[in-house]
């Protein structure tokens, strides 16, 4: 401990980082993961809803692009504008309110009568999720054991892939039986119920509580993690008491290059991710594959990401986040190309290729978020992750639109997938450069304030 720190005082990050994984962590991952699940459920459901809506409302194929991208634009707005509010109103409150907002506008989609209304409602559903996801990632990372931080973020994001799978299964059952509005009905009621659970059970941020001087609440929160914590324990900050997240923490000279490269990696990954998940069902149906094959192949893209997370997360903690992610993108480039050639092959070959491509397409998205959580310190993590997701969503917006334009202009599906493979190759190079500039970009952690903050 630093000189001048009383024996009873401990560093907050040390107390949290040295804990073993326990029941508290399992609950935390389930709660933060539920937010990711809702994101996956919503994102993938629109891939199956949009073609049905287009047929019912007699919309051209090109009109599907705005339907796919509306919520992604909303996500970007939520990431950029709402995520920084966590520094003021705290993670738990922002997550619960944002999820409730998402639920309300998803329910309104049930009553949409034309394309314009549906696009507007989809935009605001994205805004709600955009406010919740960065705080969910930041909170999971804040409570993670120090040697398991990447693994925690990856496992939390596995729920995103589970949401994709659930959307595929629900769409296959509900849309033929009750129509596309039934998907939005379930997709609206579920987040409203989850928001109540989050407001009650989700822990508050210890860093936020310590900065705000809410010592009694801090002690109560930490006892959920450390039941035998002494009521007389005091804490010191790893950063100065007055330190607050500012734009300079993300865009300052010491971190600007790393931030810009991170944004580029996000944009490239998310462009391919959303393009594949948005258009794969439509592409397969146009090539003559049965609906069951299209649904299964799309689900396997996300299942592959779940399987990969079991390997990628621990590898990032053990081997390093940069080298692991760069390798994922490099392998992913080859596997996306394989999927492109398998589109016209047998069902067995197609499904195998979809699963393998998913290990890197979906797994890569989880990994780059884990990388962002490692790159930024706790007090700026929500802002850093949120802005990276927000700027990266530009790729998520452009990707589906470009694929729609290319297919509408007569480009072959195989050519489109080969272009996406090249994009992943570029992402691998981006991470390689990021690994070089991030080390000198990181500044030393400020010395702890010698004045302990008393808890209890």
UniProtKB/TrEMBL annotation:
One Pfam entry name: MFS_1
Recorded topology in the membrane: Multi-pass membrane protein
Presence of keyword Transmembrane helix: yes
Coiled-coil ranges per UniProt: none
InterPro entries (UniProt xref): MFS, MFS_dom, MFS_trans_sf, Sugar_transporter_CS
Entry's transmembrane regions: 21-41, 61-82, 94-113, 119-140, 152-177, 183-202, 256-280, 292-313, 320-343, 349-375, 387-409, 415-434
Domain Major facilitator superfamily (MFS) profile span(s) in chain numbering: 28-439
Any one GO MF annotation of this record: carboxylic acid transmembrane transporter activity
Main location class: membrane
Keywords of the record: Membrane, Transmembrane, Transmembrane helix
Location of the protein in the cell: Cell membrane
Record-level GO cellular component terms: plasma membrane
PROSITE patterns named in the record: MFS, SUGAR_TRANSPORT_2
Name used for this protein in its record: MFS transporter
Biological source species: Amycolatopsis carbonis
């Amino acid at each position: 401990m630093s000189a001048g720190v009383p024996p009873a005082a401990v560093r907050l990050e040390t107390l949290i980082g040295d804990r073993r994984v326990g029941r508290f962590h399992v609950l935390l991952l389930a709660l933060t993961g539920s937010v990711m699940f809702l994101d996956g459920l919503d994102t993938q459901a629109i891939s199956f809803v949009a073609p049905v809506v287009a047929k019912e409302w007699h919309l051209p194929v090109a009109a599907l692009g705005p339907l796919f991208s509306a919520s992604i634009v909303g996500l970007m707005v939520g990431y950029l504008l709402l995520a920084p509010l966590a520094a003021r109103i705290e993670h738990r409150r922002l997550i619960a309110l944002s999820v409730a907002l998402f639920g309300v506008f998803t329910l309104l989609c049930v009553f949409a009568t034309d394309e314009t209304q549906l696009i507007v409602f989809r935009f605001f559903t994205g805004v709600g999720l955009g406010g919740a996801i960065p705080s969910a990632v930041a909170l999971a990372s804040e409570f993670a054991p120090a040697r398991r931080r990447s693994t925690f973020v990856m496992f939390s994001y596995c729920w995103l892939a589970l949401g994709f799978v659930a959307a595929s299964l629900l769409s296959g059952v509900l849309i033929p039986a009750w129509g596309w509005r039934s998907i939005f009905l379930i997709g609206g009621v579920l987040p409203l119920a989850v928001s109540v659970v989050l407001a009650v059970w989700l822990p508050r941020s210890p860093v936020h509580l310590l900065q705000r001087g809410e010592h009694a609440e801090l002690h109560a929160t930490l006892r959920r993690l450390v039941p035998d914590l002494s009521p007389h324990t005091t804490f010191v900050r790893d950063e100065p008491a007055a330190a607050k997240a500012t734009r300079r923490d993300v865009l300052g000279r010491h971190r600007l290059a790393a931030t810009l490269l991170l944004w580029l990696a996000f944009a490239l990954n998310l462009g391919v991710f959303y393009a594949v998940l948005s258009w794969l069902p439509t592409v397969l149906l146009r090539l003559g594959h049965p609906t069951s094959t299209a649904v299964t192949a799309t689900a396997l893209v996300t299942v592959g990401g779940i399987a990969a997370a079991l390997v990628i997360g621990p590898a990032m903690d053990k081997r390093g986040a940069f080298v692991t992610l760069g390798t994922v993108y490099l392998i992913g480039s080859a596997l996306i190309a394989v999927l492109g050639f398998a589109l016209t092959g047998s069902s067995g070959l197609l499904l195998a290729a979809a699963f393998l491509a998913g290990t890197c397409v979906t797994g890569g998205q989880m990994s780059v978020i884990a990388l962002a959580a490692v790159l930024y310190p706790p007090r700026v993590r929500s802002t850093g992750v949120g802005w990276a997701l927000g700027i990266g969503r530009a790729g998520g917006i452009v990707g589906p639109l470009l694929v729609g334009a290319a297919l509408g202009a007569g480009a072959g599906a195989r050519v489109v997938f080969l272009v996406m493979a090249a994009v992943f190759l570029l992402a691998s190079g981006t991470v390689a450069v990021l690994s070089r500039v991030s080390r000198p970009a990181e500044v030393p952690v400020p010395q702890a304030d010698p004045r302990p903050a008393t808890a209890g």
